């Protein structure tokens, strides 16, 4: 431990990371630098400064990273239509590479020897933080207190806080029994009664969305404008990536959009049940697929769909900065060159319904697709040869079997 002189801590300002900050000072006898990021969690982060100062910490980084998060991480992922195991929209997973990137950059700026985080030894986040950090700074030392200390219960943590005069906020009302993580893309819930996959979540658990049955009886329509696979305007109003997500979270939440209840396979090997609210991500994904349906070549779209589960798995497992993810991203971005136009969606009681799409790059040809007279645009007789060639192997095999 004596070789660590300075460590950069991913610091939320909450009880756990405040304890970690003090523990690092005590156990490693080192200088601590705190880094607190605003990635759209919806909580005031400036109070973290006073808490860090109270522990004698002099180098305190508090940064608004919402636009970088949306532009450089969420939007590229949305171009891929990425979903893990068919349901999870990767809200926590995609935030970790940005935090790891800034931890490493701050370590380099301040001459720190190590970085530290508050992820537990059972979860995916420890893998994501560290894999992404090592990809950017191969020799960085990582301190993961949950894998080192013996403060393995809430009682021990509280006792440590009291012993070291760490402020414990006393909030009025009922304390949430859930472990939660929030950013521009989602809010997640784990623990409490939902640890048992058989239990239905309590209605008061959900913070961002109304229950679909309690949503307005009148639908909400949105006109969403894409340029090269990215949303650039809604209802004719130009918006930055972060503003797009903030707006869609609000209107989506009001219409009960984006609730998910999932049992997922963690990278570390266990199954875990989590509940998620992803209003913006749900709308973005539906609208993006609609835009691609009009503008993307069939085989290119199918290839994207084949590769998407692997791409999503890379993000989930912490390989954002791996060469294979970057290689796939280059292919995905190339596919988006003509994914521009407008998609009209209807939000109604938990549902996102695509009701229209237009594009100057549309590959839809009404003259060919129509069920009415097509003026010779499509020769029906061509289908006979097409069918016979494609069935040749089937007919040959059937004859060999004596049918």
From TrEMBL:
CDD domains: ASS (cd01999)
Binding site for L-citrulline: 88, 93, 124, 128, 179, 188, 264, 276
Molecular-function annotations in GO: argininosuccinate synthase activity
Domain Arginosuccinate synthase-like N-terminal: 6-166
Domain Arginosuccinate synthase C-terminal stretches: 178-395
Record protein name field: Argininosuccinate synthase
Species whose genome carries this gene: Thiomicrorhabdus marina
Top enzyme category: ligase
Pathway in which the depicted protein is active: Amino-acid biosynthesis; L-arginine biosynthesis; L-arginine from L-ornithine and carbamoyl phosphate: step 2/3
Reactions accelerated catalytically: L-citrulline + L-aspartate + ATP = 2-(N(omega)-L-arginino)succinate + AMP + diphosphate + H(+)
Binding site for ATP: 10-18, 37, 118
Superkingdom of origin: Bacteria
Known EC number: 6.3.4.5
Subunit structure: Homotetramer.
Protein localization: Cytoplasm
Annotated family: Belongs to the argininosuccinate synthase family. Type 1 subfamily.
Binding site for L-aspartate: 120, 124-125
């Amino acid at each position: 431990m004596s070789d660590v002189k300075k460590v950069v801590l991913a610091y939320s300002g909450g009880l756990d990371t405040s304890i970690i900050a003090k523990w690092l000072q005590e156990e490693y006898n080192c200088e601590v630098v705190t880094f607190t990021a605003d990635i759209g969690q919806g909580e005031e982060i400036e109070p973290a400064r006073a808490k860090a100062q109270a522990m004698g910490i002099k180098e305190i980084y508090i940064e608004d990273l919402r636009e970088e998060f949306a532009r450089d991480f969420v939007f590229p992922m949305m171009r891929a239509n990425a979903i893990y195991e068919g349901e999870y929209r990767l809200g926590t997973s995609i935030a970790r590479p940005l935090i790891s990137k800034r931890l490493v950059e701050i370590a380099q700026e301040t001459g720190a020897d190590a970085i530290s985080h508050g992820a537990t030894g059972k979860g995916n986040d420890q893998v994501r933080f560290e894999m992404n950090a090592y990809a950017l700074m191969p020799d960085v030392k990582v301190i993961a207190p949950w894998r080192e200390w013996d403060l393995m219960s809430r009682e021990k943590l509280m006792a440590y806080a009291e012993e070291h005069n760490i402020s414990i906020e006393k909030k009025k009302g009922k304390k949430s029994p859930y472990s939660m993580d929030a950013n521009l893309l989602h809010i997640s819930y784990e623990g409490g009664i939902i640890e048992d996959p058989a239990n239905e979540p309590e209605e008061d658990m959900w913070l961002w969305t109304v229950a679909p049955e309690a949503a307005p009886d009148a639908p909400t329509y949105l006109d969403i404008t894409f340029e090269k696979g990215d949303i650039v305007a809604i209802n004719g109003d130009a918006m930055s990536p972060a503003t797009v997500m903030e707006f869609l979270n609000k209107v989506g939440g009001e219409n009960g959009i984006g609730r998910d209840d999932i049992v997922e396979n963690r990278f570390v090997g266990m199954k875990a049940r989590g509940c998620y609210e992803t209003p913006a991500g749900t709308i973005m994904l539906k609208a993006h697929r609609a835009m691609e349906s009009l503008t993307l070549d069939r085989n290119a779209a199918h290839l994207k769909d084949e590769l998407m589960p692997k791409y999503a798995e890379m993000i989930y497992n912490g390989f954002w900065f791996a060469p294979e993810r970057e290689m796939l991203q280059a292919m995905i971005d190339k596919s988006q060159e003509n994914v521009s136009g407008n998609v009209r969606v209807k939000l109604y009681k938990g549902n996102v319904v695509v009701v229209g799409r237009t594009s100057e790059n549309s590959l839809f040809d009404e003259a060919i697709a129509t069920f009415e007279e097509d003026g010779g645009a499509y020769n029906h007789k061509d289908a006979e040869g097409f069918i016979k060639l494609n069935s040749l192997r089937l007919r040959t095999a059937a004859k060999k079997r004596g049918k």
